[in-house]
Amino acid sequence: MPLAALVFFIIFSLKAFITIPPAPLLYMLAGIIFPFPIAVAVIYVSLASEMSIGYFNGKKLGENRVKAFLEKKKWTANFINKGKDNSMALCFITRVLPIPKDPMSMFYGAMAMPFSRFLVVSLLGLTPVMIPFTLAGSSIDNPLSPEFIVPFVVCLFVSVALLIIYRRKTRNVS
């Protein structure tokens, strides 16, 4: 089991640099391999590594380079402009929604968000997605069971609800 945990740590750390399997798939895989509490611990440690690497890459690259890179994509420019007054809320929401996490980690590093705040808010924001997918992985042997289906419904509901709240709160922001 320690070797499997190390493999997860390495995979998540590599995710900061290259596109590899999506995180929800890795969450489910952890739920299959480990007992649920251990799966959650392994994932949190691995996510902390991935988020930290992105954050410090952004800090190293600097604000101008990271913003220029992110503003090439319309959705990131929109998020950045609407959320610049509340970076903690933006950090949380970008972790819940199904958007690339690593470029946003770079953004927070480049914008000098305090690292401890960034890491805590990021991990909290990833939790509403990570927990249901890990639970689903634990129940994959019966894909028609409520134990497998309900986590996906919860994840979808949380994501949609947070997106609606975020859009209403930022509707009048230019």
Summarize the structure.
With 174 residues, the protein is mainly α. It has helices spanning 2-15, 23-33, 36-61, 63-70, 74-83, 87-96, 101-110, 115-138, 146-170. It has one domain (2-15, 22-170).
Q: How many helical elements?
A: 9
Low-pLDDT stretches: none
**What do the pLDDT scores average to?**
84
First-residue to last-residue Cα separation? 50 Å
Number of folding domains?
1
Radius of gyration: 16 Å
Order of helices and strands: HHHHHHHHH
Shape type:
globular
Strand content: under 5%
Description:
By secondary structure, this protein is an all-alpha fold. It starts with a helix and ends with a helix. It is 79% helix and 0% strand. It has one domain (2-15, 22-170). Helix 2 packs antiparallel against helix 3, helix 6 (87-96) packs antiparallel against helix 7 and helix 8 (115-138) packs antiparallel against helix 9 (146-170). It is globular and about 45 Å long. The chain is built from 9 helices and no strands.
Layout of SSEs?
Blueprint: H1 2-15, H2 23-33, H3 36-61, H4 63-70, H5 74-83, H6 87-96, H7 101-110, H8 115-138, H9 146-170
Helix pairs in contact: 1-3, 2-3, 2-8, 3-7, 3-8, 4-7, 6-7, 6-8, 8-9
Offer a few descriptive terms:
single chain; 174 residues; mainly alpha
